[in-house]
Amino acid sequence: MTTNTTQSVLDINPTDHVAHLSSLDYVNNHLTMEQVNLTKVAEQFGTPTYIYSKNAILQAYQAYDKAFGAVEHQICYAVKANSNLAVLQLLAQAGAGFDLVTGGELARVLKAGGDPSKIVFSGLGKTESDIETALNAQIACFNVESESELHRISKVAQRLGKTAPISLRVNPDVDAKTHPYISTGLKENKFGVSHDDALRVYKIAKDLPNLEIVGIDCHIGSQLTEVQPFVDALDKVIELIHQLKQQDIVLKHIDLGGGLGVRYTNETPVAVADFANALLPKLQDLGLKVYLEPGRSIVANAGVLLTKVDILKPTEHKNFAVVDGAMNDLIRPTLYESVMAVIPTNLSNAKNIDKKQWDIVGTICETGDFLAKNRVLSLSEGDVLAITGAGAYGFTMSSNYNSRPRACELLVDGENVHFIRERETVESLWEREQML
Ligand code: LLP
To answer: Which residues, at least 6 apart from 11, have a Cβ–Cβ distance to it below 8 Å?
Structure first.
């Protein structure tokens, strides 16, 4: 058999793998989330299905809240990672604020009962109408990404007779050492105002009407597994804070963005407590309120995607397990070549079947339609597989490509399963279309 050069062969021990995940366990050979048997969930609700653990989401949020307890802080969950209303509601009730990038996300957060005074609004292209809605809702801060945007916010605020709280998103030119598509803090990236230009743009903000400078912000990338890039970015931001002070621009807060990585297979990301401890001495010296915008590290490992093996297709060159989930449900493996763990929900199925090397693929007409490559598994048709780490950037990045209805979403709370999004129907896919 030829091996694929882009992803090495991976033989994951399911029980060892779940030992690192707080919400998952094998009980009598069956994968469970909290107290819920996931094979049964697949039978009852069908597949593909996203399922999240309430407890794991809250634990991850509380770990941040606790780790930064030594400074005044606000954790603003990055909505893009998982924007289901129930997930937002859960976090809002736990005291989280929110980081948004669109008017759509703002509407969702308000609908879910999020507190506007804990909202920061990032994003490169806020429209006048987004700005108006956010000003009317009285959000905590606009994270501004360009000089032009400053003028736009000032104009809308003048029209409404309001003052817009703003901070500049500074691009510190630090290498986040992550996948190039999710690295944001380098000079060549489209995000933020360059470190060298920030002082000039802050001075413009100071002179523009109806703006109040309240903070400074940076976000250097996602799925960072080392702490040093965060420390380097913080140092650069602190340097700017001192320069701003000399210009009589005094800030109230510093926002360090999100980006902390998680363990998908064998990464060794920094624990939240260690991340906090590396930054806290410098933050305590500053005496500013600290904002953070974690997304992935709150929800990724609280969720799995359940998918059923539909057809096994061993060939001379490669073995394909065709499943009912596909790249439209979970695009991370295709888009970032990310390696996510695939484990069976029922270990006893596997006992009498030889292990083989499989590519786990969907039915979409693209060679790039795979969920995993070169996985050593004992598979039979009808088996249910769980793709772990799928709670972040899973459902939110899903699409209807090949006219595939999107998966349903469930939330586990102890032994209860809440239905938090219905599976789409095929008919719903053309609801907004019109024939001639
Ligand atoms: N704040 C800002 C301004 C961001 O752009 C992002 C993510 C976050 C916070 C949250 O970062 P996190 O804590 O989740 O790393 N779709 C990609 C990830 C894209 C991240 C974009 N920005 C993936 O699936 O890996």
So the answer is: 355, 375, 376
